[in-house]
Amino acid sequence: MVTLAEQMIPRRKLLLLFSEMLLFVAVIIIGTSAPPFSTHTFLLLEPSEDLLRGLATSLTIAIICQASLSYNDLYDWKIAQNRANLANRLVYSYGYALVMLGFLALVAGPLFYLPGIDNLNDETWKLIVLVGIAFVLVFCFRHAFHWFFYKWRFGERVIVLGSSQEALILSRMIQDNPMAGFELLGIIEEHGQPQLESRDNDPPLAGTLEDLHAKCRAEGISRVIVALKERRGKFPVEALLKCRMDGVIIEEREAMFERLTGKLAVESMRPSYLIYGRGFTKDPLTMALKRVLDILVSSVGLVLSLPICILTAIAIKLSSRGPIFFTQERVGEDGAVFRLIKFRTMQPDAEATSGPVWAQENDDRVTKIGKFLRLTRIDEIPQFCNILSGQMSFVGPRPERRHFVDQLQQDVPFYPLRHTVKPGLTGWAQVSHPYGASIEDAQEKLRYDLYYIKNMSLLFDVNIILRTVAVIMRGTGAR
């Protein structure tokens, strides 16, 4: 696995990203260097300053095109594997790319250079044709890419050890996520455990513990994932040691689960995995840079959103009685309580009779203007003040109310660990999971929150901020 922004990014997905970037760059630079778009035939054969400028412009256009692919979830394997829907999503991606390129041509057209385009603002149609050709080639390339890896099975060969339900679930996850780059041989059963109840298309049973070492050698296994039901007094040290001496990687179930899902297996995780595992580092430089990012983003956000805030305040006052702002006590870092600020989206005294309750879909307590503010996330803008004061960070676990924190600490394992960092305006859970409105949702979001805390870094924060922009543009996850 390659680590990027402290997230486990499948090598196969990185290869797809890099290959398609080269495809876009090649189509644009070669297309504009050859007739009928240019008289400078094959500029690529003439190293020059113009070539470097052309490559830089082509790379910028390629990134915009790939951003539109990502916006349409075409780098999400579960969605992109639907080949019947691939063409439809590519058409939408092409449309989004044209809008962004049109804006680019309008704002910064004269700054860019392509061999066959004297002025990007005046000759955008040439670029439209070339980008269209590139998207057609992406459609063909996607089919060839997936066929190649399915046909020749280049994945890293792994085997799962264990007769637990968790072992079976993990095996299914590996099997259902081919973009992760793993090829599952099967499951090695434990001694004295009942046989797993499998269903059609489940991973096969590859033998028992006595077969483990021989299987690894015969099948070229490079990784054994340990998912034993009971380890006390039954851990197969000798068998695993033999495999390890052959160069096979021995890995706990939780590590593979984290890699495949971008979250931690809270419900079955042992404290030792958190204590001895990698991550959870709070490097002073990283924390200082994170604070600088918080101040910079929140300051710019407040200045740019000032006109919107003024219009929002007027709309709230005209549409319903009550204050413009809503403040509420939330639990922050190390359990400290602070007052979170938002634009009011509910009727005054919305919980006067009901007491603290989870926010529900189509909540009748929300005002008409409040629904719009929640959908667009405008109601969250005042929290920039919480960030500037140091009570919150721009990225982190969302702060919860004391009433729910007391309840969740009793019902959800490891829940207090989310308070070891500053809460955030947005977070990994917010961009990865729908709005939480129950104990089950809180547990699922905790899996993502702990993953973030474990892998916290400045690049991860930037990644989450970019994903947040996409979520807001789609208008998903709000209540």
Indicate the topology.
Blueprint: E1 2-4, E2 7-9, H1 11-33, H2 49-71, H3 77-80, H4 83-108, H5 124-152, E3 156-161, H6 165-176, E4 182-189, E5 205-208, H7 212-219, E6 223-226, H8 237-245, E7 249-252, H9 253-261, H10 271-276, H11 284-304, H12 306-319, E8 325-331, E9 337-343, H13 368-376, H14 383-388, E10 393-395, H15 402-411, E11 424-426, H16 428-432, H17 439-454, H18 458-474
Parallel strand pairs: 3-4, 3-6, 4-5, 6-7, 10-11
Antiparallel strand pairs: 1-2, 8-9
Helix pairs in contact: 1-2, 1-5, 2-4, 4-5, 6-9, 7-8, 12-13
Question: What would you say this structure looks like, in words?
Answer:
The chain is α/β, with parallel strands linked by helices and 479 residues long. The protein has 18 helices and 11 strands. A hairpin with a 2-residue loop joins strand 1 (2-4) and strand 2. Helix 1 (11-33) crosses helix 2 (49-71), helix 1 (11-33) runs antiparallel to helix 5 and helix 7 packs parallel to helix 8 (237-245).
